[in-house]
Design brief:
By secondary structure, this protein is mostly beta strands. Helix content is about 5%, strand content about 25%. It has one helix spanning about 5; strands at about 10, 15-20, 25-35, 75-85. The N and C termini lie far apart (about 55 Å).
């Protein structure tokens, strides 16, 4: 197993990459709606309506960067960092309120 393969877990819509400086936290990156302007060459604005990136190939192949739904490159899709998760799960969901 190579160094890069050990650092990144692949998912159909994005990837989980550990943050190297902050310890065991991981960022979940997803690619949402396609924002490619198909009418830019005629001076207009038209998107195709693709709502979520779906890789057309396996991770590590060129097809992993092409959307199966709209045939656009992954870079045309909106990149969203959904959450940072702890690999050591802890229940830290308590809400504190300040009283005056």
């Amino acid at each position: 197993m190579g160094l890069q393969q050990g650092l990144k877990k692949a998912y159909a819509n994005g990837s989980v990459t550990p943050t190297p400086r902050s310890g065991p936290k991981e960022k979940v990156v997803r690619y949402k709606e396609c924002m490619r302007n198909h009418a830019a060459n005629i001076g207009g604005y038209a998107v195709d309506g693709c709502t979520e990136f779906m890789a057309s190939g396996a991770e590590g192949t060129p097809g992993a960067f092409v959307c199966a739904a709209c045939n656009c490159h992954r870079s045309f899709h909106k990149r969203v960092v959904e959450s940072e998760t702890e690999t050591d799960s802890c229940d830290c969901s308590s809400i504190t309120t300040a009283s005056r």
